[in-house]
Amino acid sequence: MTESAGVTESPGAAEPLSTAQPNTVVTQADLAQPSGAVEPGSVGRAGGVGFPELSVGELVARQAGRVPGAVAVRFRDRAVTYRELDRAANGVAWRLREAGVRQGAVVGVAMGRTPEFVVVLLGVLKAGGAYLPIDAGWPAARLATMVGLASVRVVITDAATEVVLPEHVTHLRFHASSRDDGPEVAVDPGGAAVVNFTSGSTGEPKGVLITHRGITSLLFPGDFLDLSADTVLLAHMSPSFDGMTVELWGPLLHGGTCVLFDGAFPSAARLRAAIRDNKVNTLTLTAALFNVVVDSAPDLLDPLSALVIAGEPQSPRHVRAAHARVPGLPIINAYGPTETTVIATTFPIAELAPEATSVPIGRALPHREVAILGPDLRRVARGEVGEICVSGPGVALGYVGRPDLTADRFVTVEGRRVYRTGDLGRLTASGDIEFLGRADRQVKLNGQRIELEEVEHALVAHPDVWQAVALVHGEGVTRALKAVLVTAGGVPDDLRGAVGAVLPAYMIPGDVRAVDALPLNQNGKVDRAALAALFD
Amino acid sequence: MRWEPADRAAAVAAIWREVLNREAVDPDDDFFAVGGTSLAAVKFLAEVEEVFGIDVLTPEDLYRGSTFTEVLAVIEANSGAAVEPSAALGPSAATGPTP
Fold first, then answer.
1. Minimum-distance CB partner of B45 among A269, A475, A510
2. Per-residue confidence at A396, pLDDT binned at 50, 70, 90?
3. What is the per-residue pLDDT across B35-54, written as a single tens digit (0 to 9) for each?
4. B43 to chain A, minimum CA–CA distance in Å?
5. What is the pLDDT of residue A2?
6. Would A280 disulfide with which of A234, A344, A392, A458, CB 3.0-4.6 Å?
7. What is the dihedral of CA A248, A249, A251, A255, to 10 degrees?
8. How many Å lie between the alpha carbon of B15 and the closest alpha carbon of chain A?
9. How many CB atoms lie within 10 A of CB A487?
10. What does residue A450 show for φ and ψ, rounded to 5 degrees?
11. A326-354, pLDDT tens digit by residue?
């Protein structure tokens, strides 16, 4: 970028994967068109082409200059203005600079979902760092692995959060700072902003390096959510979940309000009260939680003006029921792996065909390009099944500390960097993509990605477990992770504790059975259907 | 109309069975040990709220003591006020309304 116009066309987007190929889904926007200079905040609506070539911290600072008294964050009875948020984050940034944090450094943040948490995340970004949200419930061994992979030297906690950290890590306790001027740090928009860890099939979690540009290109124009200064979004997801990127920066890059859900456990009653008390108009839900809301508390949706559902294939019955109840509410089915910055494609539920038996994942967002590729990384014909591959500015830098895994999944096709999702899909006649499952053994439970191999690694690490197969079994809210073992004698009493020392709670099988031998099918492979039947 | 204790237990058991997809309920059954996930908890809490009212059983209550006996005791203690049991005792006690 030669001129500091503030806005640019999507970097590297001059050559979409293939506009000419009929089986390639390309963004609506003509990405080759220069966008011209548009002030952040008004980007995207008029031309719909550009996103600001600025860091997340700089964009929030500009909102603080534009609407200093507007409420940025609400929590309980507190209302934090943009001016207060920006100044407090400056203090954190100075503190981190003093602690040696420089461009590209990953800073761990283990805090409750409070305004101070938002202040710290913004402060990390202003200091040029990338934040790694840490769930205090993670086992110490797993946290140590993450800290090692991401070369974390500094972790910030609040008074309510206890974490066990490797000795070389500097532990900072959050406190308000008197210094509130902006640090003179030129933050590279192409640099890392967030590290989100996901399950890894090698037995080790993978840290995805998400960039500022990935976030800004997602949220400008952000029209999938109609983000604006009027947006009041309820942030309720786990801070370590990549959906928080949308929940926080969605409103905060546009002058809107982020309402922080109060409480560790979700419940329909609390969501309803939070929506009502704070005049929330925008919500994101995992498919699984959405289904529960539709079944048990659909009135919760009534006050909303925008709803995004994501994380797993949607149930046509539930989306139809929600659409029938609140016909005026735009409901968007969103799809995307963490590696392409939260969302790659969207499908408006209002367009669901009456006879549809599945909910399409739709089409690429502006600034995302999606193609269905074969094993040779060439496009398959329309209608044929292939791997969903994503390119554009949302594509992450890779897996922190693991160039080998990065090279495996982040490949170059026709001169463009492409993330191979491992998800199977096909392009339908309507131009929407249909999701058809996984090419491997990755599963999703309540929006959480789990590599079954990683669970099995942890199970067979127990000395009395000889073989282990993890699987997902059950329907609806009882759909859960389970495991079958071949052991020295029954399920070891200390298995849960041993597994819990390396895996987070959502990856621990809730029901474990021991068998004498694993059943095999005609091909001599483990008969997973027979194993699943053990739990019927 | 006030809940009779037996009705209350039956109503809670109906919700428990429906949400956890189980045929029988033992007083010592633990919600999270018999297949209850965090999502199942959201559904269970929502159904309990529908029948017994808001904050009769909070998420913290359920996570603190999750056996059927413990859950029932909390609901008993917090639902002294008049409530309409009819919704709970019908055949579709715990399925909730489908819009």
1. A269
2. very high
3. 888 899 999 999 999 899 88
4. 6
5. 33
6. A234
7. 130
8. 12
9. 20
10. -135, 125
11. 999 999 999 999 999 999 999 999 999 99
Tens-digit pLDDT profile for residues A171-220:
999 888 878 888 889 999 999 999 999 999 888 999 999 999 999 999 99
Secondary structure of A390-443 as H, E, C letters: EECCCCCCEECCCHHHHHHHEEEECCEEEEEEEEEEEECCCCCEEEEEECCCEE
Per-residue pLDDT, A49: 59
Give me the CATH topology for the region A7-35+51-436. Answer: Rossmann fold (3.40.50)
CB distance B40–A267 less than 8 Å? Answer: no
Q: Could you tell me the two tokens for A313?
A: 């294939």
Q: What is the CATH number of the domain that holds B38?
A: 1.10.1200.10
Q: Which of residues 16-75 of B touch A (CB under 8 A)?
A: 19-21, 32-33, 35-43, 45-47, 49-50, 54-55, 58-60, 63
Cα dihedral B48→B50→B54→B57 (10° resolution): 0
Residue B99 lies in a domain: no
Domain boundaries, chain A: 7-35+51-436, 443-533
Residue B98, domain member (yes or no): no
Q: Which CATH number fits domain A443-533: 3.40.630.30, 3.30.300.30, 3.40.50.800, 3.20.20.140?
A: 3.30.300.30
Is B29 contained in some domain?
yes
User: Is A265 within 8 Å of B38 when comparing Cβ atoms?
Assistant: yes
Q: Name the DSSP class of A2.
A: -
What is the domain range of residue B84? 5-89
Q: Over the stretch A276-291, which tens digit does the pLDDT of each residue have?
A: 999 999 999 999 999 9
Q: How many domains does chain B have?
A: 1
pLDDT in tens, A86-129: 999 999 999 999 999 999 999 999 999 999 999 999 999 999 99
Which amino acid is it at A335? Answer: Y
